[in-house]
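Changelog-adjacent note: as of this version, every example in the card shows the full chain rather than a window. The one below runs 649 residues end to end.
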Amino acid sequence: MTNSPRPKSPDSVDQDQFLTILSREEAMARFDAALFPRALPSEQRRLADAQGCVLAQDIVAPIDVPPFDRSNVDGFAVRAADLSKAGEAAPVRVMLNDEVIACGTAPLRPVLSGTATSIATGGPLPRGADAVVMVEHTNPAGAGAIEIRRAASPGQFVSYAGSDIARGETLLRAGTMIGSREIGMCAACGISEVLVTRRPQVAVLSTGDELVQPGTPLRPAEIYDTNGAIVTAAVNENGGEAMFLGAVADDEEALEAAMRKALATCDMLVLSGGTSKGAGDVSHRIIARLGKPGIIAHGVALKPGKPLCLAVCDGKPVIILPGFPTSAMFTFHDMIVPVLRRMAGLPPRSDAKVTAKVPVRIASELGRTEFVMISLVEGADGLIAYPSGKGSGAITSFAQADGFLKIDALADQLPAGSEAEVTLFTPHVRVPDLVIVGSHCIGLDLVAAPLARAGLMVRSIAVGSLGGLAAARRGECDFAPIHLFDEATESYNAPFLMAGLELVPGWRRMQGIVFRAGDARFEGLDAQAAVRAALADAACIMVNRNQGAGTRILIDRLLGEARPDGYWNQPRSHNAVAAAVAQHRADWGMTIAPVAHAAGLGFIPLAEEHYDFALVTARKQRPAVQAFLQALASEESRAALEGAGFRPA
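Full-length structure tokens:
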């Protein structure tokens, strides 16, 4: 006897949609594979119009900020050595030069010993001056003279060139959201336009005969359209530009027309409702007619969120969220936000997590990964996570929860008293993933770039090699970049390590004497001869480096006991040294070859120094530390370092 196929009822036609229930991971993998890689459209925007946009490429500072050494106060530019014995009881009298340096006024006369020049806040420091005294600490002393009642130290009330932003420094990373602070940084560097990722245009449609927009009186069996407002706001929060197109009734022809119109003008379409098994849910049938490949996943082993439908129609993502608000919002944030942020050029969302104890047993459906909304309270021994049992239709489940915990698909419960990891919805503070404290080098930006692209936050603090070692010894950082030469062993860095630190080779960079090209005092000489020539010329002014810098150790080794004019001028960066020489405020100094060449200056090689990293051993296994070590060893970073003029170890 042959069994004949039984004809489907109209209801059964509408219930054949859940053909294969996919795991969350499989559904996401298929959706990503159908959408990416893809080129992100970009556009040039005036700086004033870029607020809220996302940078499409890194911005590198084209100049030093400030571009010259400048005064931080109203007062007088002086030589600190002239005031070493000044005090209230013994003021020092100096003669005033016949010029006043205001903002925007280039100084014309040098400050010689025994003289001072009136200078306004922001005024460029004149040649010969290495400090500024406040006007409040001076008194007139006859025609063309003042008395100064306080001693001054070199660098007092002076902002050195490049002390805020150094030329060549990565100012902002691609993927950075532009706000008022970022606009200010760009303006300070003279940048008037930026390349930004065009925001994805996202059409938002609600579906259902029962939906009414807020502000309209409800009739029997109607509800307000909550999902339309929530999804629209969530799209805008995550880099998209939402276009809410209202609610469409469960009419297949009208809904198809609305979906086609949305896809014709937008980059993504998000619907809510119309994914479950009701006879009125028609959205999934329409998708098959809108473009290839069509439905990628319809039915995901999630709770809440099983009815989620993911599709791609001719390269454009189409998402049909469950109709219940908590289901809709959880699946949107968990599975759609990563795609939207990627299309907007934003880094992955950063979710803060805490560990909490679950006081009650939570039953779970075997075979479905379950996400449980929880509320946190402070217990005697730490955080307690109470689950919300309001169900997927409760708006407050999502709105009032502090976060969620996950129960694996292979578990049928979470026992009472379990320690669980809670993912927070609204983290207040995100600490850096990787902390680097020590000597700064533009090569660091090159090595850290892959970490930034991976969504890791890297903070680099420039305090010099010795300052970095001190921070590492106190456990305040992961890495301390150092370039310290030990005369006893004739080697770099390793002799300076202490217990708990280990050396990670970085790269080599050529240190040398920098001078203005064509200066006959230096042209054609080696480094030692150049320093001897500088010391023989009393009018030759040097620019030094800050104490604790590896460069300072090299300079002192060359100078011996000599302390030439400019020795106490101690900027904290290579860029500031090059700026002082290029701008004729000094005649020579020591910097690295890439900085000298970028400034168009003459360069006399001295020694190839080792720029390495002191790693805090106790932090070695942290994921961000391992990511940095991998990036440091990668071919991408080595090529980038070589291109910048460094030699990878």
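Structural remarks: The longest helix spans residues 325-343.
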